[in-house]
Amino acid sequence: MSPTTRETRASRNRRLAITEAVRRNLVNEEQPVVGLLDLDGVTDTARELQEAFTFPGVSVLHTFAVKAASLVPVLQHLSRAGIGAEVASPGELAIARAAGVPASHTVLDSPAKTRAELTEALSAGIAINADNPEELARIDLLMDRAATASPIGIRINPQVGAGSIGAMSTATATSKFGIGLRDEGAEDWIVDAYTRRPWLNRLHTHTGSQGVPLDLMAQGVAAVHALAERINRAVGRRQVTVLDIGGGLPVNFASDEVRPTFGDYARTLRNTVPALFDGNYGIVTEFGRSIAAKHGLVLARVEYAKSTGGRAIAVTHAGAQVATRTVFAPDAWPLRVEALNASGALKDGPLVPQDVAGPCCFAGDLIAHERPLPLLKQGDLVALLDTGAYYFSTHFAYNSLPRPSVHGYTTNSDGSLHFTTLRKAQTIKELIVESGG
Ligand SMILES: *Cc1c(COP(=O)(O)O)cnc(C)c1O
Questions:
Q1: Residue 220, exposed/middle/buried by CB under 10 A (0-12, 13-18, 19+)?
Q2: Dihedrals φ, ψ of 412, to 5°?
Q3: Is residue 113 in contact with ligand 1, taking CB distance under 6 Å?
Q4: Backbone dihedral region for residue 211 (phi beyond 0: left; psi -120 to 50: alpha; all else: beta)
Q5: Per-residue pLDDT reduced to its tens digit, 158-214
Q6: Which 8-state DSSP code applies to residue 261?
Q7: Ligand 1 pocket check: which of 42, 86, 169, 217 to mutate, most ligand atoms within 8 Å of Cβ?
Q8: DSSP of 37-73
Q9: How far, in Å, is the centroid of ligand 1 from the Cα of 415?
């Protein structure tokens, strides 16, 4: 599909989904904010990923970073498309298992794995990437107790440097993740660790999420590939058989254009590390944002419109609870906001700089600051675009605001839409229970 066809289709589907969601009363007095996810779009992106990483003789397992959209039906949907799960907490592992993701398609990367978590993964045969020497020592003890089918690797921090967002950069000199490859003596320590443990058969790296340029990501993968070659030479056999190259493909939040593409990244990898796809290693990927972000949106009612100090302010129901990063780090995570009328159609009229505020009780709860938009008024709607990953599924419980419902949609052959519930809204009763009541 050509980029422009895809962009047109993305925006047409979005228009239709919004007006249909309004017509079906999915946004209402009790549920003034909802998430919408284009499941066909997710399937198409999964297919593009699979095609971009198809190389003769190379076995590739794509996993989805569950933290990007931690919803059981989304994981089921991806699993049907052949995409597994990368999990980073006991909760995420439970969600992946509830979705029926096979153990062989699951990778456990929790930064702070407990003994119980490691034991569960080893007994299920789920792949584990150890973060540090102390974790590896725990795995040693567990391995002595029972046999396991789990592939096991070590997470390497190639220390290639930061991207444009510090909090998303995992390959800095002092990042909290993995073993720093360039620290004095580290590489020898790692080679020795593999020599002593014939069951260590993977290497893992994840160089960053959003803001890390493709060539920096590829340099991280190149460092890990070179390390695998060195280990295999040292032990005299192909002990490391799989390289887990992580996720981190950045997403364009400025327009409907998908840029960079998985194809761009695969080409960059092939140019930087030509031997990566020569068939000597299986590949695991762990993309999150780039699979789901562009297919989701948050739709919220404008409860009030007002003006203070000459500033037009729309008070909406979408704020820090569904767009946490955008509210707390607005320069790193700007979102496109659409101004819609009560039936979900794009508003027109002169553009007026407006603050689009959320429902949380702190002054900084703004989705957009002085954004030129047609003037919003009470009863209108706003759509926050590209929020299919790390937004409605990554709720922040401030002000006891409930988790909103999330609706998935697919397009029928006649062009009409079919909606399914991906998550029900949290009820006030559930909220009381969650709050100790
Ligand atoms: C968050 C994370 C990912 C996914 O990152 P995206 O930027 O969403 O692709 C993959 N692997 C690990 C280890 C992560 O922490």
A1: buried
A2: -75, 165
A3: no
A4: left
A5: 998 878 787 777 778 888 899 999 999 999 999 999 999 999 999 999 987 888 899
A6: -
A7: 86
A8: EEHHHHHHHHHHHHHHT--TT--EEEEEEGGGS--HH
A9: 34
Amino acid (one-letter) located at 9: R
> Which residues 6+ apart lie within 8 Å of 68 measured at CB?
288, 289, 291, 292, 293, 389, 390, 393
Rounded distance from Cα 109 to ligand 1 centre (Å): 10
Element (H, E) at 6: helix 3-23
Short-list 77, 66, 33, CA closest to 425: 33
DSSP string, 308-345: ETTEEEEEES-STTT-HHHHHSTTTS---EEEE-TTSP
Would you list the domain boundaries of the chain?
A: 3-37+293-434, 109-287
Atom of ligand 1 nearest to the CA of 389: 8
Q: Quick one: tokens of 277?
A: 């796809």
pLDDT the model gives residue 1: 60
30 secondary structure, DSSP code? S
In this structure, which CATH number among 3.40.50.1400, 3.20.20.10, 3.40.1350.10, 3.40.50.300 belongs to the domain 109-287? 3.20.20.10
- Going 372 to 366 to 424 to 80, the CA torsion angle's sign is positive
**87-101 pLDDT, tens per residue?**
999 999 999 999 999
Q: Are 87 and 107 in contact (CB under 8 A)?
A: yes
Residue segments in the chain with a per-residue pLDDT below the cut of 70: 1-3
Output the pTM of the full model: 0.97
Q: Is any ligand 1 atom within 6 A of the Cβ of residue 89?
A: no
CATH number of 3-37+293-434: 2.40.37.10
316, 408 contact by CB (below 8 A):
no
Beta carbons of 317 and 33 less than 8 angstroms apart: yes
Q: Which two tokens stand for residue 220?
A: 């991280």
Distance 226 CA to ligand 1 centre (A): 22
- If we measure between CA atoms, which residue out of 284, 206, 274, 208 comes closest to residue 243? 284
